[in-house]
Amino acid sequence: VQLKALTSLAVLFKQKSSEEIVQIVPQWTFEYRKLLHDYNREVRQATHVTMTSLVNAIRFALVWWFM
Q: What is its EC number (predicted)?
């Protein structure tokens, strides 16, 4: 279930605009931390792939998180 959801989320990140995606960053960071500790290695790998899709989708909108 988690793998399918993460795959769908990664695809969604590629389809939506950065303005839409940046709104879910606070919730995603919370879920990301939980998913990194999952027992299943495939879930952890899919989590990283999804995070890569997120960063590629929003690029410069992510800058304000680190200021």
A: 2.3.2.27
Contact assessment for residue 46 and residue 7, using Cβ atoms and an 8 Å cutoff: yes
What per-residue confidence (pLDDT) applies to 2? 92
Q: What is the largest CA-CA distance in the chain?
A: 35
Q: What's the number of domains the chain is made of? A: 1
pLDDT of 65 over the 80 cut: no
Report the candidate in 29, 31, 14 with the shortest Cα–Cα distance to residue 65: 29
More confident: 61 or 10: 10
Residue 11 domain boundaries: 2-66
